[in-house]
Amino acid sequence: MCLELCDAKSGNPRYLMHIVDSPKKSNNLKFAVFIVPHGRENEWMFGTAEGRAKLAENAGSSRLLVVHLYRDQTYESLKAIQDELSSKVMEIAPSKLPPNSKIPFLSVGEDLGSRRELKRGHSQWSGEFVVEDIHPPGTSKLRRLIFLANQNVIQSEAKLVTVREKKKKKGNIKETVTIDHSYLSCEHHLAMVGGLGLVMYPAELLLIGLGGGPLATYIHRYFPQATLTAVDLDPAMVEVAREWFEFSPDSRLKAEVADGRDYISSTAKEGKKYSAIMFDVDSKDSSVGMSCPPRAFVERSFLDVVASCLTTGGVLILNLVCRDEALKKSILQDVRAVFSSVLCQQIPDEVNCILFCSMSSSEFDKKWEKGLQDVNNSLKKLQNSKSNVIDLAEFKTNVKML
Question: Which GO BP terms sit in this record (predicted)?
Answer without folding.
Answer: methylation; polyamine biosynthetic process
